[in-house]
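If you are new to this repository, start here. Below is one unmodified record pulled from the training split, so you can see the exact layout before writing a loader.
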Amino acid sequence: MCNPTAIIGTQAAAGAASTVGAYYAASGQRSALRSQARLADINAGLAEMDARQAMIQGERAEQAQRIQTANLKGRQRATMGGSGIALDSQSAQQILNSTDILGEIDALTIEQNAVRAAWGHRMQAANARNQARMARATASGISPAMAGATSLLGTATSVASNYYALDRSGAFDEPQGFDYNAAAQGFSMPTLGGSFAPGETAGLPDGVWRDLFRGRFG
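And here is the target side for that same chain:
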């Protein structure tokens, strides 16, 4: 027969372990979310640096393109002058104007590409910052103490309910009219120096036999 006290004790011990587990699980989850938030902040900072670098590279490329256009116009003037073409003539002006337009288109394309690249990096930074805010908000809503208290309350309720059910069923009641001395006759007690013959109980009080039987059979 199972000892009802042992059942309740085992359940209480398991509940205590569950409470400790709930506390550390919540604490670990909160720490993980805080780490995610810090990592997201770092990623946001790196994305902002990439955006600035994209703009700087775009500006340099745009300047290089404009310089290249100016050098091309210089070579065109020199070529036309060496060929005896008047630089103020309509044909010469058309060539130079075309060079200016094409060079400006190339420069603006470089600028737009740089702006587009920087915008993409800034969107990444914004997303990382949002992730950091969400992680921190979630972490702030986690309380290890509350998680442990909730688990403990559930365990206490379950233990109390089981105790009440066992108590109502009479599991904790002593058998009525049970003669412990009579049951002890002929019972082997090696720890007391051997077994007693039928009818011998070594003169132990009934309460002592009750405790012994509870420890042996409870």
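Two things worth knowing about this chain: Residues 4-82 form the longest helix (79 residues). Residues 4-173 form one domain.
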